Amino acid sequence: MAEIEALANECVDVFQRKLNVRLDLNDCDDTAQKLDDAFRDIFKLKGAFAQDDFYWHFVKPVGACLGELLRRHAAHEWIKQPDEAPTMRISLKDGFSDVFPFEKVINHAMGGDPSDLVAYVAFAQAIRGMEGDLASS
Fold first, then answer.
1. I need a surface site. Which of 16, 52, 97, 124 has the fewest CB within 10 A?
2. Contact yes or no for 120/107 (Cβ under 8 A)
3. Could you give the domains of the chain?
4. What angle do CA 99, 89, 121 make, to 5 degrees?
5. What is the pLDDT of residues 66-93, one digit of tens each?
6. Can you tell me the distance from the alpha carbon of 136 to that of 47, in angstroms, rounded to the nearest whole number?
7. Strand, helix or coil for residue 100
8. 11 near 23, Cβ under 8 Å?
9. Containing H/E element for 38?
10. pLDDT for 36-67, tens place per residue?
């Protein structure tokens, strides 16, 4: 869990240095769109983050960045279960909803449609908005 912030910062840094794209985690919609746009050339995205021993390294920083958008703008919290990738949770009136930003990045890389990440973030924000409505019901 301690490395989430560092991974998100790595994502912002690599996008700027290697892809010439400025990500601002305080601007949720713009950053979600730029993350989504980067998947249109998946080989360029993977290459920007590639490490000698792990070509798919991009999943970690991009997933952390995606999750940080949800934490900052959609009231989700990071949670960690033993031997599993970190996930995120939002508390609802009668329970909770979990999302999986790292798995979303993998799925998007393997065949996601344009705007899938934008929709993912928008849905998380909508759940946050509904949570207030549900709590007052």
1. 52
2. no
3. 3-135 (1.20.120)
4. 50
5. 999 999 999 999 999 899 989 999 988 8
6. 48
7. coil
8. yes
9. helix 28-38
10. 999 999 999 999 999 888 889 999 999 999 99
pTM over the 0.85 mark: yes
Q: Who's near 50: CB < 8 A, 6+ residues apart?
A: 57, 58
Q: How far apart are CA 109 and CA 66, in angstroms?
A: 14
Q: How far apart, in whole angstroms, are the C-alpha atoms of residue 54 and residue 98?
A: 27
CA torsion sign, 47 to 51 to 57 to 62? negative
| Beta carbons of 64 and 4 less than 8 angstroms apart | yes
DSSP 51-98: BTTBGGGGHHHHHHHHHHHHHHHH--EEE--TTS--EEEEEETTEEEE
- Nearest residue to 103 via CA among 90, 117, 91: 117
> Is the Cα torsion angle 111, 116, 121, 125 positive or negative in sign?
negative
Measured between alpha carbons, how far is 4 from 36 in angstroms, rounded to an integer?
20
Residue for token pair 């980067």: 38
| Most distant CA atoms of the chain, gap in Å | 53
Rg of the chain in Å (alpha carbons) = 15
